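Researcher: Quick one. two chains, 230 residues in total.
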Amino acid sequence: DSGVTQTPKHLITATGQRVTLRCSPRSGDLSVYWYQQSLDQGLQFLIQYYNGEERAKGNILERFSAQQFPDLHSELNLSSLELGDSALYFCASSPSGAGGRGANVLTFGAGSRLTVL
Amino acid sequence: KNQVEQSPQSLIILEGKNCTLQCNYTVSPFSNLRWYKQDTGRGPVSLTIMTFSENTKSNGRYTATLDADTKQSSLHITASQLSDSASYICVVTLSGGSYIPTFGRGTSLIVHP
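Model:
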């Protein structure tokens, strides 16, 4: 157990629907990152939050949004789902948002597998 | 073009053999480089981390090297085991800015008995 908890583990839904993926970071970590991993693809950075505020944005579609709550858990909202959104979605956390040798050690959750039919 | 390139894309070896995975990066300025191991369907797990001034870092049967001048890193696995079958991902982080790590696409390693 990495200490990063993601729910649900698996999710099957239809095109056009909306889903929410949830992430609880490791205790003490302030930063949360979201990544998308499609079949046989590398990890694609979506977005980062640090202590409740958006810190950096990657290749996140406008149909996707995220937030980090005061208790530091984060949610990734995916709407108007398309077949191509089927992927593993990973959440990772780190102690801080920037700087230092160890500050951005990413601890990953087990992922949420989304299947869009 | 991905700023972190890994080779080979996939590799099959026999149990007990050694292998070396390569990572070339173009991102700069450089802060640190990590190797992660990702089992199928699981989240990546950090194996090693190296900063600019470090050339070699070992973690059991895993040894990572870094040449910051040529922007190359390698991960050497000694006496491979079946449990080494996984994807190995090279991750480079810039210094300055938001410190978002840049991931390579990984090398898929299969160890056969």
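The radius of gyration of chain B is 14 Å.
Researcher: Thanks, that's what I needed.
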